[in-house]
Known about the structure:
The structure is a single chain. This protein is α+β, with helices and mostly antiparallel strands. Helices cover 54% and strands 10% of the residues. Strand 10, helix 22 and strand 11 form a beta-alpha-beta unit. The two termini are 61 Å apart. 38% of the residues are buried. The model has no long low-confidence stretch (mean pLDDT 92).
Amino acid sequence: MSMWGGRFEEGSAVEFREFNDSLKFDYVLAPFDIQASKAWVNALTEQALLNKNEQQALQTGLDNLLAEVVANPQLPLQNEAEDIHSWVEEQLQDRIGVVARKLHTGRSRNDLVATDLRLWAIERATLIGEQIAATIDALLVFAERYEDTVIPGYTHLQRAQPVLVSHWALAYVEMLERDLDRLSQARDRAGQCPLGCGALAGSGVTVERSKIAHELGFRDPCRNSLDAVSDRDFVIELLSVASLSMVHLSRLSEDIVFYCSGEAGFFLLGDAISSGSSLMPQKKNPDVFELIRGKTGRVVGNLQAMLITVKGLPLAYNKDMQEDKEGFFDALQQWQQCLSIVAYALPHLSVAENVALDAAERGYSNATDLADYLVSKGIAFRDAHELSGQLVLIALRKNVPLEGLELAALQEVAPQIGNDVYAALALRAGMSRRAALGGTAPVRVHGALRRARQRLQAHVAALTHVRQAKLSDVPKIAELIRYWAAKGEHLPRKDEDIMQAIHQFAIAEIDGEIVGCGALYVFGTGLAEIRSLGLQEGLQGKGLGAEIVQFLLDQARNLGIGRVIALTRAPAFFAKIGFEIADKSRWPEKVMKDCEFCPRKHACDETGLEIRL
């Protein structure tokens, strides 16, 4: 069924249709096209362009069609429709008759495809976000397994200074966390709804576009109809995030390929993630990581293609924009697959700890430690650097490490050197001195691992169930607080008080229903407290409460808050998150603010806990 006609006296040529039609790739938009159509049916009904019987028939037909598509995603490919929009209408007409011909009233394929693609992008971005989190988790598990293992660090691919394997893994955690932040921001910016903008000038039907947007899960409707139907910034932005993230995965892969090579031998590949040679029996190849390097070019290429496609397009919609899909679909699929295989492969990777340690101790990697030692003896660093270099040259000529030079030989170059130099040149001693924030000192890395694990838990919470509260959430938050206040777990709060403090609240939701809440209250001195934490009865023990707390702790971190407290009758719950028992008498802000007016002031049965961020 063609969605255009009347003006044409002849049908389209087969050659034109083969070149023009898009069903062969936009069929993946079927669930989203049906979702958008369901919202449009409701909008038309509100404008009295459909009666209740027609609305019911259309909604039932769309629901049945959606169930068929979910059961068989490739169902549209069994048809010769022009695109997914015409396929949906054709299938609907076959099922419910001519009333299906009213579905397209007031809308265009231009605003419909822009809506479908945004819905697809938001869903896929959420899935990829969860996969980035899983990959970060795999890196953290690897880092925790080899927290104290030493490996050579490199600059210019020359051995430089020793670092911990965990410090190396955490560098890639940082990269992937930035990717996750960018992805979340791009997903949020995609959350504007084009439906109701028509072909370019707006719909001829005065539908409630804000209501349509919220029904479809968008944040807001697009503000300008010309921009709404022609904007593909969200495609380009997600392709850009994908490209940069793939570059990060490619760098990780290159490190692993090198570390697994015979020239390094620091890492060992498990059989499950290795391949062999058809000719050379001894080979064990890191094909997984080489493929990731290769696929990076494919994803970056899709970004470049999309940029070139839109760079000269006039407003509004042009057929060039049909080229927005194949590369977009492919890039995000490849990105998600590469993230998944990295998360799978890391547990099959091990470290040859003795080999790595031996390599870290060679190559005069403690030359900087010697310079630092000389600085501690009162020598200016630039002079200490030169003296250390002279001693490296002497050691090279004698074919011994720096610590293999006799004290007399060291003192010939720098008389200030004492017998304590040998302790300073020890590998672990040098690493321990790298204790400034961000350094590889074991104490620093241990703390960095703990904080990275906390941030990951906050990211997972934000990706799954938890979000910042909005004013529209106030009635449900108030209901939850009243319920637990009646049980003596919370202090009661008025609706207007919650509304004033809505910026403090986070909520948990399941299938769009608010099932939990919590607040981060900041005292005048910068101390913060977790308050009003509660879940719908029956949902305890499923991790939702911990997700809310982790989300609030991440907000505290972003605000620069260093310490968060909690008063609770469930200290074990907070202890699992990392809180520790604390002395409440050291919380003057809390005592002065609330406890003076609490009816249980002299018989308090709550435990005080705190966590440092």
